[in-house]
Amino acid sequence: MEASASLIEWLKTRELPAGRTAEDFREAVTAQVVKDFQWNPERVAEVRISLVQLLEDEINWGLDRDASGLFAGFYRLDLGEAKIREVMDWNERPQAARLLAELSLERAAQKVWLRWTFGAVDTTF
User: Fold this and answer.
1) Whether residue 3 has pLDDT greater than 60
2) How far from chain centre, in Å, is Cα 3?
3) How far apart are CA 3 and CA 15, in angstroms?
4) Using CA atoms, how far apart are residues 20 and 7, in angstroms rounded to an integer?
5) Fewest beta carbons less than 10 Å away: which of 19, 29, 38, 70?
6) Over 60: is that where the pLDDT of 1 sits?
7) For the chain, which residues make up each domain, given as ranges?
8) What distance in Å separates the CA atoms of residue 90 and residue 10, rounded to the nearest whole number?
């Protein structure tokens, strides 16, 4: 899967923890999306489109057929019902799918970055 420009843009304003590379980050974000949307990791590894495009396709498919799995993925990702509703209410369907894909990718990136950045912090006194 090709690297996403959205992820690269998102990383520009943040610093990765020591020992972590942008490639590590991309792989971890992909794994987070796979986990939250309960995708088959082997199938995702074979895809030759960007992760944001894959998310957009999944969102469109879910909205066309059965949105329950899609919204369960948003829930696991902790995207936020209010944000989803806002995007759906204020945008035409194709643009809404694209925006939700970008928000999903950004949220997955936040989860990984926060876990990497603060997960190793020793909180014992």
Assistant:
1) no
2) 13
3) 18
4) 15
5) 19
6) no
7) 25-110
8) 24
